[in-house]
Please model this.
Amino acid sequence: MKAGGDPTKIAKSLGLDAKTSDLFSRTGNVADIGGAALIPDAFTLPVGQSSAPLFLGANWVVYRVEDRQQANPDDLAKQQPDMLQQLLDQKHEMAF
Model:
């Protein structure tokens, strides 16, 4: 892929499907790719920029960052009790 090329147009010209995912977190999953940890550059690329081709398993992936949503500290505060309970449950299961 040439630098600055449009991945959607390039995919169509090669007879491939271009897909769009929902927003995902660093620990989330990306449809048809797997864990977001497989594409860590997605969290550092500027909005509008495309990745270099990346070989994942049996597929090549090129992605473009369409949007970025910053973490909301208020949401974290609301989720903290549930996350703490999940960690305690995991530790409890590991101990027994």
User: Anything to note?
Assistant: The CA atoms of residues 3 and 37 lie 24 Å apart. The longest helix spans residues 73-95. The chain is about 30% helix and 10% strand.
